[in-house]
Amino acid sequence: MMETAQEVVRLKELARSTRKHILESLAEAGSGHPGGSLSAVELLVTLYFHVMHYDPKNPTWAERDRFFLSKGHAAPLLYSILAQAGYFPVEELMTLRKMGSRLQGHPSMGIPGVEAPAGSEGIGLSLGVGMALAAKLDRKTFRTYVMMGDGEQQEGQIWEAAMAASKYRLDNLTAIIDRNGIQQDGLTEQIMPIEPLAAKWRAFNWNVIEVDGYEFTQIMDGFDLAASTRNRPTVIIAHTVKGKGISFMEWSPHYHGTAPSKDKLSDVLSELEL
Amino acid sequence: MLSRQAAMRDAYGEALLELGATDPNVVVVGADTTGSLKSGVFATKFPERFFNVGIAEQNLVSIAAGLALAGKVVYAGTYAIFVPGKSVDQIRNNIAYPNLNVKIVCSHGGISVGPDGASHQQVEDIAIMRCIPRMKVVVPADSVSTKSTIGAIASIPGPFYVRLTRPSTPIVYDSGFEYKLGRANLLREGSDVAIFACGIMVPEALKASESLKALGVSASVVDLHTIKPIDSDLIVECAKRCGRVVTAEEHNVMGGMGSAVAEVLGEKAPTPMKRVGVMDTFGESGEAGELLKKYGLTSANIEQAASSLVQGH
To answer: Domains, chain A, ranges and CATH?
Structure first.
């Protein structure tokens, strides 16, 4: 128990620094997507700093666990995580979205730690299915993780991939849905309702786990349960808050795709108690 | 030459079986058309390396990308109307942008699909695929060159689009064919007009060259099987020697092989030219032969285009 408590403290600190990097790099860039980056911080922190096996000094290590960001607009989150994991210098985050930077507006090849380009919604889960199929074929034990947005559940290809993952019993594949309820134009349930989301995934023969996206113990347990589930892929539906951690960004469709201004940055960061 | 016929799809299946036996990294992905495409024969020998994703062409392309990211050499395809038709974004963002080793091989290109009608007659795919960076585009002339091409591209890194034809077609390469990326094949050397053809229009171009010879017109015939990267040197050389150019393709004249040749010549060697192809229209139901005639895709159309250029029209 004590060990878990210490681990949660460590992960919480990483979540704080991740939010700081996201906000600083977005303010410097002057554009980008804070809302869906901030919402999924704890999920990705848990994955990269508690769950996944990888070697930042050897990004193409064949046995590494794979992570695909399907909601590619959360690139500032992924980059902040990868930098802290040691894939590239943290200072490089301040080149986000700038001419000549490796850190493209959406993930692309050539960024250490990035497995595949992303940005077009709805297609990342299929990449994970292909990777997980290859792992089974090669008798590899690494696991494949795919983070999706909730808005992109509206894309048909996700359900094509969901069917395929069930058909091939991809228990080495775990999907995570950042269920923050908001997409660019407003609330998912107003724009194009995706509920009952858990029932949909169950109907596609997936193992469905629902967690509070900010409770580290729940998130860790979710990933443990996914790893021990046989013959079925798992989806973790994480209930989250768009813009989490910054009061004026929370629940705001506007901050789906609006960067914080530079002159407000110190106020914004003060909310993180850094 | 041209007296025997064979199906490109059969050649595709044979090539996949050979690849499967020599390269354990080769995998095949299909979308409910694997019997028709003959990619399904791969499953009889290598079931664990064969994946049928059902009627889901976007998923087909992206799963292929995932397999390629894991180091596989992936052959994926269905009918050309569906890939690239339904999956351009996945081809662009999942395969071409990261330069993955996915060979997209699709059958039923062009109007010779026949009775299924316009909804199944893909005459835009060359245009779609050749404007995607890093994508290489091949339209083989017959079953012999299809088999050679399918085998050869396994060891050429990066994405390919290979377009095959539904009906059996005349054998152009009785004496064999060796695929070389970006190198077109000069089949006939002539001095009055250069005919560049791809796919099933290659045998038509050869027939046209015979009838042109009877009229006293000496025609070069080039099998321009690889439309991207295009063999600019041979195109310019033939155009300069002949002074007139005809292109022939089973594709919309907009954006296809003829357009690609025009781009080369416009910049490097402006030459009077005519394009034989589908004139920016949709097809209809009918037998392949009837359709090819109605839509102007026969040796007679090539001969006519060449003659009118020679006569200065």
So the answer is: 2-270 (3.40.50.970)
User: CA separation (Å) from B67 to A49, A72, A165, A176?
Assistant: 26, 20, 13, 20
Structure tokens at B138: 């091949």
Interval A151-156 mean pLDDT: 98
Helix (H, G, I), strand (E, B) or coil at A247: coil
Conformation bin of residue B79: beta by default, left when phi > 0, alpha when psi is -120 to 50? beta
pLDDT digits (tens, 9 = 90+) for B276-290: 999 999 999 999 999
Chain A residues 126-145 with CB within 8 Å of chain B: 126-135, 137-138
Which residue among the candidates B14, B18, B48, B57 is catalytic per the annotation? B57
So what's the pLDDT on residue A1?
64
Q: Residue B188: beta bridge partners?
A: B221
3-state secondary structure of B312: coil
Interface test with A, best of B28, B73, B74, B93 (most A CBs within 10 A): B93
Residue B249's nearest CA partner among B212, B286, B210, B196 is: B196
- The label of the residue with tokens 């790099």 reads A25
CB contact under 8 A, B93 and A119: yes
What is the b/e burial string over B229-240, where b = at least 16 CB atoms within 10 angstroms of the residue's CB?
ebbbebbbbbbe
* Residues B160 and B197 reside in one and the same domain: no
Q: Which range of residues forms the domain containing residue B63?
A: 5-170
Q: Select the residue of B49, B56, B65 nearest A130 (Cβ to Cβ).
A: B65
- pLDDT of A273 reads 73
Residues B159-208 have pLDDT tens digits of 999 999 999 999 999 989 999 999 999 999 999 999 999 999 999 999 99
State the pTM of this model. Answer: 0.96
pLDDT digits (tens, 9 = 90+) for A69-106: 999 999 999 999 999 999 999 999 999 999 999 999 99
Taking Cα atoms as reference points, which of B281, B309, B310, B308 lies closest to residue B296?
Answer: B281
B25 with B144, same domain: the answer is: yes
Is residue B146 predicted with pLDDT exceeding 70? Answer: yes
